[in-house]
Amino acid sequence: MRLLLSHPEVEIGALTAGGNAGRRLGEFQPHLLPLADRVLEESTAEVLGGHDVVFLALPHGRSAELAAQLGDSTLVIDCGADHRLQDADAWDRWYGGEHAGHWPYGLPELPGARDALRGTTRVAVPGCFPTVSSLALAPALAAGLVGPDVVITAVTGTSGAGRSLKPHLLGAEVMGSLSAYGVGGVHRHTPEIAQNLSGVSGEPVSVSFTPVLAPLPRGILATCTAPLTGDGAQAREVYDKAYAAEPFVHLLPEGQWPTTKATLGSNTVHLQVAVDADAGRLVVVAAIDNLAKGTAGGAIQCMNIALGLPEVTGLPTTGVAP
Amino acid sequence: MRLLLSHPEVEIGALTAGGNAGRRLGEFQPHLLPLADRVLEESTAEVLGGHDVVFLALPHGRSAELAAQLGDSTLVIDCGADHRLQDADAWDRWYGGEHAGHWPYGLPELPGARDALRGTTRVAVPGCFPTVSSLALAPALAAGLVGPDVVITAVTGTSGAGRSLKPHLLGAEVMGSLSAYGVGGVHRHTPEIAQNLSGVSGEPVSVSFTPVLAPLPRGILATCTAPLTGDGAQAREVYDKAYAAEPFVHLLPEGQWPTTKATLGSNTVHLQVAVDADAGRLVVVAAIDNLAKGTAGGAIQCMNIALGLPEVTGLPTTGVAP
Amino acid sequence: MRLLLSHPEVEIGALTAGGNAGRRLGEFQPHLLPLADRVLEESTAEVLGGHDVVFLALPHGRSAELAAQLGDSTLVIDCGADHRLQDADAWDRWYGGEHAGHWPYGLPELPGARDALRGTTRVAVPGCFPTVSSLALAPALAAGLVGPDVVITAVTGTSGAGRSLKPHLLGAEVMGSLSAYGVGGVHRHTPEIAQNLSGVSGEPVSVSFTPVLAPLPRGILATCTAPLTGDGAQAREVYDKAYAAEPFVHLLPEGQWPTTKATLGSNTVHLQVAVDADAGRLVVVAAIDNLAKGTAGGAIQCMNIALGLPEVTGLPTTGVAP
Amino acid sequence: MRLLLSHPEVEIGALTAGGNAGRRLGEFQPHLLPLADRVLEESTAEVLGGHDVVFLALPHGRSAELAAQLGDSTLVIDCGADHRLQDADAWDRWYGGEHAGHWPYGLPELPGARDALRGTTRVAVPGCFPTVSSLALAPALAAGLVGPDVVITAVTGTSGAGRSLKPHLLGAEVMGSLSAYGVGGVHRHTPEIAQNLSGVSGEPVSVSFTPVLAPLPRGILATCTAPLTGDGAQAREVYDKAYAAEPFVHLLPEGQWPTTKATLGSNTVHLQVAVDADAGRLVVVAAIDNLAKGTAGGAIQCMNIALGLPEVTGLPTTGVAP
């Protein structure tokens, strides 16, 4: 909503909620001053119908039915997981239940993705970890620089966990501490990363993914490594070529490493590559704001593409730092 | 000094410094209230001579000469890097200049290390990253569970960088941000980790090591993975056996993952293991307080062993949380 | 419990809980490694009976009945609010319901308080804000240096709010933000501060008290001001005299200002005084760890006095920093 | 620069620096992606001449000469202290040396200030603490609600101290700690606050001001109290009336208290008032982003007024949260 408020082609319609329907937005989000007195409505087709674009962020398993009720004249952008995975068995294994089918995948910087988004009325926006991890490793895999066996450790701020009231997310627990979770390949973003990287690589890519919780509100820094199989000396050129024309993916000058703060509030990915000759591995470090390019900003980028607007409309490339 | 103050067999003698010699300790370390009015002296053999034990934390290349002046009747515990590496070429490559030789290595939990520490008058205390990384991976390598090709991403609080006045360590830069540094195998702790793990494994171990800076004062959480070559179902038993008798290394109950805060101020390592069957990797996550077991606590543990005191004397196993 | 574990005269008996009875302590408090496998019991007189000392930290209105069941042979130390206020009307106004009566007040550094604690079997431990605020202002009021009209702004870490699951205490909300709460004299610690300061002053003291929530886990820094009515030049001497013999209250050297971190984990109060001649006010800044001297450490200090042990037994004066 | 980049009427000209002249902006400010490759120039009249607007942020004592060289056709907006104080003696006491004279004061929301800014070619932008403190107390003083004797405790993030390399500003020192500084009325923002409030009140206002450093990058929360002399029941109406038409000053709904995060990155002030009948004081709590409305945003607001643009042009009222 913060980003949509400054989007020149958007007028904000109904704001809806789950348990908080009926309450003022300003109670929860006082930073959205221009919308503070808006009252949250129920997330129903009655309320949402009639809008040109609807963004959904629902518990999984709920968006397909609502999208069907909204019909094909509405651009439905699903920030949830329901339509990200292509494989029904993978859906069943990782989420359980019937697969709702897959929609055009909202990571325009992946090969072929942008074409599928043009003119679509359905978008499945990726998760925050798949966004940063896939963009970090896709060029190397596409170029055959590395083998299909990647290791990712992604450190994240706590907003990634949403606003659920769990003891380990309390400020007093989080501040001054680091912890791992979803270790051993059990985080639900793992199959999504594997799907993206396998698609780029053309062969199955094995993904070891570990998320780490750190004491900051927002931001993800992913350290991504893979065994070098090609010429490490070409790594920089490969990444430069892959992203030179991308407005939101920024390869930093040699010697400068990404910080999440430089991306705070913006729709950018900052990344850097290195070759570890001793270990025979490529290391890519990438930073995003999980609440911007992570999902919400990426969703607006997809909206722009789907509607035929300039892709960068309303999306900042400038972070809020320090 | 905090830990030594509550060590029942220690009387604190001279306190020395570099550029701050001549000033009150309380100016810099007001938390050390019982020592606040002590005046810092010069780090010379004249001042340090006559003590039973001397702890050094000097810029590299400086401890050998001072230790020689102190003679063999003094137990010299070097918290710096000078005597950690066994190989003179490795020293020259990573630090430059002439190798001062290696001393008994102060990580008692490594196979054979404790014996070498008993009765010694010289100890090379390991760095913080090598401590946590080596203890995380040694049992799996020793048991042949994993192959000699490990990937480590270690997230650290900013005290690991000391009190040097660099812009990127300012509070306003650090808070709310994550950054990587020393990427691509260029951090000086890399050869020390490789030395430890190769020693345990019996064959050269390749180490991909990436440190990440996170916004907390102290604490390291290391995510360590290696390709499974043995029976993953035995992983827990291997670690349980390796550390059951160790007073400071704690394998958490199944399902519970380490947090750095649980180790804050204590000499403990908390760790947990998982097998990622899809990726074919073992994942070990380990947490320490870099300013306790990381170096300073480990140094006291080594002192206890060298002097023939009970190893746990004066060393807390209880963290300060939240 | 962390402090009691290193208290040489204490053996820890039953550990009890409310909703978490029946679960392992290590699930919630993994930093208390030596107690991690203890199972929490119900907070009943059956479980608690037979101990020499019982510490209570119950919702208000609940400790009187339990204490009565335990009888006079048990030293009951109430960390809750029930027996702090002397005035039944004040109790009714601020907490509601019938007053349980007042017990000897556990702030030994207040004039007369220590005598009332010797040999007692009942102690009402003060709240964290009253501890730091009362010790900051009592000497000036007792000496007639300032008028009975004080303004206190106390900044606190979030552990002061306990482990209740409220949205505004989530890490993502707390980190990077400051907020005030209980503004306008409505915080329940206000009458307790007024009671303490009025007792010292001999006349009613009016208290303007505002707590501010800041992004750190623990620590309180109170800025306390009052109009100068005496000779400001004597301020330092007044405080020096008041606290010179106190083991836990430390007036910093001139020019050095308190930091909460210097008190972290310790039972100390660090304070400093200044005279603002332009504004005609005395300003006292005082720091504590709210989870140590704030309540838990103070409770053990009172136990020592009540049992006739040396007052400082088992209580650190050394903080954990940085 | 972040704000100017999205200002529709601004084209960014020369960027200058002190010691860092000659280096890429992106080395220091990687979040300003569109300007990352700009090279910093020297802060001389040659470089700065020919621009319509020049923003200065120089060490004190340096802006008058440069402004004179730039001439009257350039709008010079001084973010430093040189031209804030009206009284030469006050300047000499607080800063030392000769007074450069005072310029129209850049806090448009103060009575009369906006008129003085229209069409001016010189603006003295206020400091961050004077901005938030003056706006918090001005309405009550102007309305005669409170007496001229105010107490302010302002908690601030560490960016307020700039990027100077001082040990107490290092991340490891700042995180997990609170500290006071400039206690006893010695902070240089004190006379500026007194000047503003005395101007509003019509009589000398005595100011007790204490800044507190907290572990967050940016944000100020000021708790401002004064003795009630008027009818407290009118407090809300007084503030409502004062700020109803102000685009950047927002009185929160009753029962909701300001958080700095709601203002992060925006040019807004959020405030709330309460009457403490027991203490006989009005309490106003106000939050700003010290790097937005605190100085930089306020500077742009003044530029808009001086140039005759709509005052709100290019200035967000939406914060970046959480």
From TrEMBL, chains A, B, C, D:
| The protein's Enzyme Commission number | 1.2.1.38
The entry assigns this protein to a family as follows: Belongs to the NAGSA dehydrogenase family. Type 1 subfamily.
Organism lineage: Bacteria, Bacillati, Actinomycetota, Actinomycetes, Pseudonocardiales
Q: What is this protein called?
A: N-acetyl-gamma-glutamyl-phosphate reductase
Q: Could you state one GO cellular component term attached to this entry?
A: cytoplasm
Show the Pfam families listed in the entry: Semialdhyde_dh (PF01118), Semialdhyde_dhC_1 (PF22698)
Could you state one GO biological process linked to this protein? Answer: L-arginine biosynthetic process
Q: Which organism is it from?
A: Pseudonocardia halophobica
Keyword terms:
Amino-acid biosynthesis, Arginine biosynthesis, Cytoplasm, NADP, Oxidoreductase
SMART domains (UniProt xref): Semialdhyde_dh (SM00859)
Name of the gene encoding the protein in the UniProt record: argC
Q: Where in the cell is it found?
A: Cytoplasm
What function does this protein fulfil?
A: Catalyzes the NADPH-dependent reduction of N-acetyl-5-glutamyl phosphate to yield N-acetyl-L-glutamate 5-semialdehyde.
Broad enzyme group: oxidoreductase
The record places domain Semialdehyde dehydrogenase NAD-binding at 1-118
